[in-house]
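Please describe the entry underneath.
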Amino acid sequence: MKKTKKTTTITLIILLLINLMPLVSFAASEPPDIIGETAIVIDAKTGQVLYNKNMHDQRYPASTTKLITALLAIENLDLSKTVTIDAETPFTEGSRIYLLEGENVTVEQLLYALMLESANDAAVALGKEIAGTVPAFAEMMNRKAIELGAKNTNFVNPNGLHDDNHLSTAYDLAMIAKEAMKNEKIRELVTTYRYVIPATNKQETRYLYNTNRLLYDEKTKVYVNGVLRAAKYEGTTGIKTGYTSKAEGCLIAGAIRGDTELISVVLRSTDAGRFADSIALLDYAFDNYKSVKAMDAETIIGEIRVKRGSINRVEVVAANSGYATVPVEASPSIVNTKVLLDKDVRAPVEAGQKVGVVEIYEGETLVGTIDAVVADEIPQGGLLSIIGLSDDTAKVIERIFASILIFIILLFVVYVILKRRQIRRRRQRRLERARRYQNYDFYNQRRYNEYWRG
């Protein structure tokens, strides 16, 4: 009887474990339930969408707008340039560093004010310095957004202060962040916690602090999937907060672990909820996905024939590193590549000129491409490049031809010299022969004369 009870108990435990296993597996991959109305998580290296909640729905982006303002400032202004604040900028509403008319500050100082304190007046000062007016700068912002992959964005100011027509989406902001984070100065700005602006001609020293709690805040606690946690997030890479009464809590966040870098966007959450949502989304993506490097930048992937070039073949390399996003449990061996190069390229060729692609596959599925580019600049070749000979080969042939020509000329000179000597010798022999005949005739004539006289 005891044996039967023991067997029954073991059987029940085994059945319970079998039933629980799918539940545990399901919980590990279950997408988080967040407060934000729209959200996204992407792999920063591949752009692959790992989580999507209404990612193409338009919302007010608030101060997440400032990320593209910073990028345009870095691309268009010298960071050491001094900006003199005009009469209008100090009256900008919302968060600010209280710039004054006539105050002199550098572009770099304005950038730190923009990205740490989320200063609206700094955004206006930068926009005007770049484009002259806020509307003109907004046009630049929209062009840049489209260039970076945005599809449903319309910016009307450089700071994100509320305007019914100032709209973006979680997807668009993720695409903007993905490209912006390739800029080293942006990465420096968004990971800086504290910055000091020395006293200016109008103001005392300013101390700026980052508003992104993921960077530093171990005291503030937020509920993430029902668990109370510190707001500070391991491996965070920034990037930009946003809040207005209409937009509510917004956050573009980033983090990196090993080779995997993620970007999340949350729009229209709560003030604390934007941090909790971002932590939940980043945790979910790290738990379920990873980036696998398919190829390093500048990897030599082959050669291509060069028509009319100074050389007739040139190495082809990968323009940048290539990655694939795969399930976290997947083997890296699932990622493979296929090289597709043009048959040839015509000189002149610029270094970095695209001549093909490297396709990246996850198993049999194409998941991305890398440009295949020429490693070196190739100028147009000389005359013999028409028949496919490189300039080096042509020079060798030219030297051989020149040597043969010189040899022929020398032979000709020797021949001429020898011929002239031969001609002189013949002439001398003829002269000598003529003299002998002349002497012989003279002798005979004398004997003849003597005979008749006798």
Observations:
- The chain has three domains: 33-290, 296-387, 390-454.
- The CA atoms of residues 83 and 129 lie 7 Å apart.
